[in-house]
Amino acid sequence: MRRYLALGLATSTCAAALASPLTVASAAPIDTAIQVYTGDAPVLATQPDGVTITDSGFGSAFAHRNGDPDDTYYGLTDRGPNADSDTEDVKIEPVTFQPAIAKFRLQNGHMTLVKRIGLIAKDGVPMNGAVNPEASTGETIVDINGTAIAPSHAGIDSEGLVAAPDGTFWVSDEYGPYVVHVDAQGHEISRLKPFNGTLPRELAFRTPNRGMEGLTLTPDGTTLVGVMQSALETPDLSGSSKKVPFVRIVTIDVASGKTTGQYLYQLHLSQAKTSVSEITALGNHTLLIDERDGDSGPDTFKRLYRIDLSKATNINDASSIPAATYSASRGGLLVDGKSLEGLISANKSAKNNETTATEILNSHGIKPAVGELYLDVTKLVWTADPSGKTFPHDKVEGVAVTHGGATVTVSNDSDFGINGIVQGSKNPFQLVEKHFGTDESCQDIGESMKVSMDSLPEGLRGPGYRKAGFSVTNRTVTATNLEPDTGYVVTVDGSTLGTLMADAHGSGVLRLPFLTPGSHKVVLSLAQSEVASLTVKSVSTPSPTPTNGSPAPHPKPSNTSGTVRPSLPSANQLPHTGV
Question: For residue 108, which phi and psi values (nearest 5 degrees)?
């Protein structure tokens, strides 16, 4: 059983025990499939009303770097502690804060901070949460006493994170939106943005504070994929962009920095007031989308959906869509002279209705990416513990996958432990403590939750998750249920044999060489993370090639056994010939 750690805060100590193991349809206990890790909460500041602001907000994104140990992850803060004031378009930043990346070890139920990496602009100025004048949101930011904070070219609202294999990082931002490349020490190397066309210019119409919320890198390392949090506020938008049931996804070639694609993702607005908080690559064109509302409780909407961009229309190329044109100043791709947001928002029946919106888009030759449920996080955590102590957070914002998607790790944005102000307060503003889920006696804190998809009871896995199949027969490695058009590395006893390339259906084969007598471990990996393995025992060596030119007989394995991921054939299905 996993343990829920006590949370040591400046103002209170909260502790909760996990409920008794719960079974679903006589399956294995849920708590064998999940592990929650709790982070520390150093105090950044204590306000006059006693509310503490904690340095616990590293869950805006969560990423795993290829080749790192299974317990090592990177988290990201947003622009820092902030709250809405009573005045429209005025936000409060009570402390000066430098957005940062953090390296964590997830061990024994604890998120141990290994290293903090502050983000620094190209000219050496520490990045901050001030308004960036190049990408103004129309807001004024003030300090705790109501004094305006000057705009800054180093202002950033960091939200998405990629820990690249070369040791650098890519960070996406809500202001611009921007995609910023930083080195291992957090210093800016380069920046993509809509204002100079290095990102699609229409992205400058992002809804304030709902820019590029998520960022990921495909397993082959060639493509960055970013996702907007909400639809754009194009010039012809009718009403609120938050009622348009799609968001935009952008693909970027890493080598050239050029945008290669733009796609729509279909939101589930008919079910809840949702937006997108993260995107995470499973394969070279299959991804997980984190779609969520902003509430706490057992009836909330926090789900991961699997999408396939190869089945969606690339709207970056207007010439491929009948009667479509392109105008960045009017919102990008235009159909019937309207931006896509303008087209959908003009139809009252399409607002908050993804089915009608998709029908309209399809009629114009545009297919959005449609999600297939992978994991319902709300259902999982409240089934595991109906008392609401297992990862009950309102903002599930970070998602990382390992083992080819068989392990999913999610993180929450704790908002640094604050949740708005006491209405009417000013000079100084009085902050309100953010609660831990529905527990009003405890302050929220940064946590992560690791989920073993294969260990979950079947009823808690969505159809979007497919357990990989792996076998070795007649010197042929065969795999199924992989991510399509994605290369998986096959090793034998730690030495690389080659790449098994999954086809469009997620299947692939690779030949094995003759093996010396004895046991040999055959491993299938993606992004240097083991997906499946088999132990094969070879009992003979190849015979000389017959003089008639016929192939030598294959050596026969005496036994084959496998790891827990994936399951192996039953004893009577083991191959009779092979390596």
Answer: 50, 40
Helix (H, G, I), strand (E, B) or coil at 339: strand
Pair 390, 34: CB distance under 8 Å: yes
Which long-range contacts does 9-12 make (Cβ < 8 Å, 24+ apart)? 9/41, 9/52, 9/54, 9/417, 9/443, 9/445, 10/41, 10/43, 10/46, 10/52, 10/54, 11/50, 11/51, 11/52, 11/433, 11/443, 12/441, 12/442, 12/443
CA dihedral (18, 23, 28, 30) positive or negative: negative
Q: Choose among 79, 71, 277, 68: nearest CA to 164.
A: 68
Contact 192, 204 (CB under 8 A): no
Can you give the C-alpha Rg of the chain in angstroms?
Answer: 25
| pLDDT by 10-residue block (mean), the chain, 579 residues | 33 39 45 93 93 97 97 98 94 97 97 98 98 93 96 98 98 97 98 98 96 98 98 98 98 98 98 98 98 96 98 94 96 97 98 98 98 97 91 97 98 97 94 94 96 94 97 92 98 96 98 89 97 88 43 38 34 29
H or E element, residue 43: strand 43-46
Strand partners, 113: 104
DSSP-assigned beta bridge partners for residue 482: none
- Alpha-carbon distance of 179 to 189, in angstroms, equals 11
Distance CA 12, CA 133 (A): 40
What is the pLDDT, as a whole number, of residue 516?
87
Q: What amino acid occupies position 357?
A: A
Helices (H), 325-427: 340-345, 354-363, 377-384
Burial of residue 563 (CB within 10 Å: 0-12, 13-18, 19+) is middle
CA 181 vs. chain centroid, Å, equals 18
What does the alpha-carbon distance between residue 65 and residue 71 come to, in Å, rounded to a whole number? 11
Q: How many CB atoms lie within 10 A of CB 50?
A: 11
Burial of 364 (0-12, 13-18, 19+ CB in 10 A): middle
Show the tokens assigned to 264: 């729509």
Judge if the upstream peptide bond of residue 566 is cis by omega within 30 degrees of 0: yes
